[in-house]
Each structure stands twice: as structure tokens, then as C-alpha cells.
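Morning F.,

Quick status update on the modeling queue. The single chain you submitted on Monday has been processed. Sequence for confirmation:
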Amino acid sequence: MTVCARWQWLPIGKCNTLMKKIRQAIPTYGRKLLFTLDASYFKNCAVFCASEAWDLLENAFPAPPKAVIVPHSMDREILERQIDRLPDVDAVFGIGGGSACDAAKMASWRTGAKLVLMPSILSVDAAFTSAVGVRVGHKVRYVGEVYPDWLLIDFGLLQRAPVRLNVAGVGDILSIFTALHDWKLAAEAVGERYDEDIAKNAGRILEELLNQARAIRVCNEEGLKLIAESYVEEVRLCELHGNSRPEEGSEHYFAYCLESLTHKSYIHGELVALGILVAALYQERDVEELVVFMRESGLVYSPEKIGISEREIFQTLVALPAYLERETQLPYGIFHHRGMTPEKARKLLDGLETWL
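C-alpha cells below.
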């Protein structure tokens, strides 16, 4: 096997002969993948993990790691203190969901240790991106740049997780629906740089996803690989463009704002799914295909099931203008364009109720 974090030549722009050099981790697919790694990764290592995933995989480690950490907070200061207390290690494993993978990425970035990522659920794309997602003052921030030696997509491990958590992963892909609309709007309204080829390729990822609801719902190997490959392609497009514009827009802004108000934790892909529906309705789009896909795939988007009240949605919508004024790094989208008032928020909530 070859190391998966490698440089790739990828086309960009309208001319396929024009190439841009980007670095991206390519997944290795299979079962019992930890047993395929060279023994050197295990000799002097630390593991950041979800406790449930560690219970399943502890026996796959030939010797006890120097440290096993279950990250309970992604607050940057707390996480950095945990990492600073680590013994010197040569390798760091991230085994679990987004928190475990991001914590391991942060440790690798700060220490220079080799990195192995093995998501136990596909509810978020943390294992596929180079930046580390942390919280600073209850706000999402992305720092650093780090690439794994190995990105292991182990079907056996993923299929031990609740189906709901893997299905949630399509939220960060389905967001292309509203993100592309925001991007086009920004190009027309404020002159933001827009790449037609990248937008078309993102649209193709979305189209393929929408045609595979059944495979996603049952989380067979085909469905799990589709989610993972969609992450790979999505991240590739974002790297080519230079930011997450092809897949992130107002649906994520809604999610970030709600999290900043409630200080609660949610399943990321499900919160984004709700944000997609809210943003799409505010974009005055036809959402029937989206809702059919969500229902057929089993993607949770109901506020009640996610743990969000109608009052919290209303407060988030009303708070969005002030939130976007503060978060100036977030590109132009429908909430910038149309603003928001209590009256508009109430009307949007009434429209949302129709599709729940």
C-alpha cells in the first residue's frame, strides 16, 4: 500500500490543460484496516477517540498507546492544554467522529507526529479536510493545515455505529444545493469570484447523491463509500477554489448562529440539513426534491428530533443580521442579501412548518 496523503495534479478552470498542485488525503477502503498498518505506527503513539470506538478497536493495538484521550470539548484552549500534556509520540490516531478526528489533527499539527484518521461515523467531513475545526468563544474556527498518512474508511467499524449517525453525513454534501445559489447570488450582487466549472462539478456531486437515497438509508458499503467519495470530491473542489464556497453558505451560517445562541451540541449533518431547508425556502427555491430525498434516505431534519425548539429557530433567524455583521469572514449569502426581521422570520417559520 502507498501512503495516502500525497500531492495530486488536478484540473482547474475551463482549460483542462491548466493544472494546479494541491494536496489531499485519499481514503483507503476495506475492513479491519488497522491490521494493515506498519507496526511503526503503534510503537509510540497517542489515540484521540470516541469511547465507543475505542472499546471496539483497543484489541487491534499490539501494545497500549502512550495516551488515550476522549475529547469532551473542542474549545481551542482546552484542547491545546490536553495536547501540551501529551508525552512525546511519533504517531497520533484519530478514531471516532468529528471531535476525535479534529483533536488528532490538532495534535499532529502542533507536534509534528504522523497522523492516522479512522472515522467511526461519517456524520461530518472532519477526517477529509486539512484544517482543524475548533471552538473559540462558542464559535467555529478553522486553524492549521495537516494531512494524514492514512485515512482509513473501515466498513466494519462504520457499520457498528447507529445508522442515523452515518446518514447525517449527507448534510455536508446536500448543502451544495443552497451554497451554489448563494455563490451565484454573491457573484451577481457583490462581484465575488465565481468559477462555472467548479460549480458544475459540485452540482454533479449533488445530483449523484440525490439518486442514491436507498443505499444511503441502509448504509451498505455502496452507500458509505458514496458519502466518503462525495466528501473527497467536495473537499477537492474547495481546495481548487481556495475556500469552502462550493459547499458552504447560508445553511451553515444558520447552524453556526444557532449553536452560538444555544451553546448546545447537535449532530452536525442534521443541523445543517435543517439549515438547508430554512435557507432554501428563504432563497424561494422549490424544496420538494430535497425533502423527498431527506425522507427516503432517513436524514433527520426535523427540529424536534434534532432537539431544537421553534422559539430557538425564531431567535436564530432574528439574530442572524447581527451575527453576520460580526462574522465578517462568512461570504455573502441570502441572509446578507434579504436581511431579516421578526416579521420575515415568522413568515419563514410558517413556510418551514409545511415541510416538516
